[in-house]
Amino acid sequence: MNYIYIFWNKVETIIGKQAFLQFFILTVLFDGIFILFFSSGITKWISGFGMALLSYYTLKLYEIKDPDYKWWITGIVIGSIIGFSTNISVVWHFFWAVFGWIYYFILKQIKRS
Question: Model-level pTM?
Answer without folding.
Answer: 0.73
